[in-house]
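Sanity check

After download, print the first record. It should look like this:
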Amino acid sequence: MKKLSLTCCMMLLSCLLTHAQSNSVFKSVFDNDKIALFPRPFFYDGGSMTKQLESEEVLLNKAKAKTDNSEILMHANNAGYYSLLSGDLIQAIKYFLLAVSTPTNDYDTKLLVKAHLAFANDIACRDTQALRLYSEIVNDESFRRVSSKIQSYINGLAGVIYLQEKDDVKAKALLNEAEKQLSQARLSIPMIDLSEREGEIYLAFNRYNDALTKYNQQLKYSSSDISKSAVANRNIGMVYFKKGDYEKAEQYLKQSLKQKQNELTEKLLKDTYLKIVTVSSFNHDFDKADRYHELYRALKKNETVSKESPQEKAEKDKIISLLSAQSADQVNVLTKQEYELSQQLTALDIERQNKEKALEELTLAEAQKKVKELELEKVSAEKLKQEAELAKKELQLNKQKEFRNILLFVAGIVLIGLFFLYSRYSLKKQSLAQVNKAHEELSLAHEKLKQTQEQLIQSEKMASLGQLTAGIAHEIQNPLNFVTNFSSTTIELLEEYKNERDETILDDIESNLERIQHHGQRVSSIVKGMLLHSRGSSEQMEQVNFNQLVDESLSLAYHGKRSSDADFNCNIIKQFSEVPSVYVLTQDLRRVLINLFNNAFYAVKEKEKKLLNEKESAVPYLPQLVVTTKTENDFLELIIADNGTGIPDKIKEKVFNPFFTSKPTGEGTGLGLSVSYDIIKQHGGKINFESEAGTGTSFYIFLPLNNLSNEIKHANTKDTHTA
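Expected structure tokens:
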């Protein structure tokens, strides 16, 4: 019977535990409105959570015994929750880590547990671990499914750490999103706490304007709560105190005390009064110093001392830490002022005591003086009559002297003015002659500079044309050799056909003639391109196939380079997209393209020579040029990218300057890129580049399709009117 009763009791106890376990609720700091998440330090409930923690630990052990992952996850999280509120942060982190590492398909719950782990690390001042976890949560897809309230808390907590790390870009993005979500959810208390936390960080970094912005935001959201409004006014006063604007600090601190009496605010107001006394005394405004010294003494007299709660002590320590970091200038000024004030206050107290004694002695002395004064008044009355007559005479003489002095003064001013005007006229005449002479010299120098520039441009053009001519002549020789060889072979085949009448010989003859025709057309196209390049600009836009123009210019430049350097080889990759025909100044644009291709070939050749000399790498270097055409956003875009020497950072700003070149003396005029820049600008386009020294350079040309069309319409209209 006893055994049966014991069995029944065990079953009943098991049912009760199962019922308690099934009724367990997932605990979250983000759902508890009594927990303030943003203020620091975080206040704990202490031993009040001991029973709940023990209960969750029992349930957690049972869940582990059953290997029930969902129960392990929930009870490990709840145990971490109660450990967190009890102040045992290490144990809380351990429980949250257990919950996060427990396998589950409920990703939303696991994300919330991860947020608890991040918050526990945050409170424990493990900012690196907390920030890593916050970042993972924000970037997780499940984060979009949690409530906007929890999103606002996590965005705000992560943003605060970024702000402490002085990463303003990431901090502002997260904090703005958090404030927007809190505002939409009408969560005024967290909004007040977040604004205050941001203000504290800005104040610690001496960023006073940002701190005032956030504290004013705190004041705005605290308008309906007198207690919180008093804290906001105190914070604003604290910023002005730290800035050194003590009168504004007094204004806000008084407003805070008016809303709610607080010992800490009274202490700040007393310190403000002392600072005003210091500054006023330093500036010799002793009336103001005395007035504020009396205010300080009155506040000191009425102060009350009460036992501080842990929250009040933490708040006091926080404000002391915020005010302790003064800017260097302010520290130097206040140190000097306070040193001088310590002497002045001592002197003022002594002087005040001496004045009180002197007043007592003065009252006695004045009574005796009055008796003597009555006797002297009679004697002085007679003297006054005599002095009055003398005064009249002296007054007349003084008036005459004053009038004479005024006349002399006016005459002196007139003479000085005339001398000044004459001197100014002489200086102006001399400066005008110098300006005219300098203008003439500048005009002559300008004409000489224009002549020199034209000569350099012509010499560069002739040098480029000569190099291309040599390359084209060399390139023409190959197809001409083919034509000569195939023609002589064809003659031999004809003789053989006459003798043998073999039909297969006719097929060979036909094949030879086709090759002769192909290479003859190739010679014709090369000569045509050479003539087009040597021809001057027509100053009229022409419709051209842009890809074909780029291809021809690339071929001319490549063969020109090979004519001067027979060993030169370069892997050329053409990535031509289908682009519309455009109206351009053909020869000018061809000149730009050939110049850019020549520069690219020069860069890859120089890098090849450098690597051969240094023998740095076992991997062979392959010179490469990638040419890309495409259209994007109403622009025709050309990209010329090489893997050559690149452009050093120190000369990037000078690349498009006239007469600037990085090539050795005699290998460049410094006008190629300058002229190219002007030609592209003439087309209404843009040219820029990206380069890394030792890696390569990419030039980008953008030609606006709409502007090019308008230009040709304008040119056609002009031609029509002329006709």
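If your output differs, re-run the checksum step. Summary of this record's structure: Strands lie at 542-544, 571-576, 582-584, 624-632, 635-642, 686-692, 696-704.
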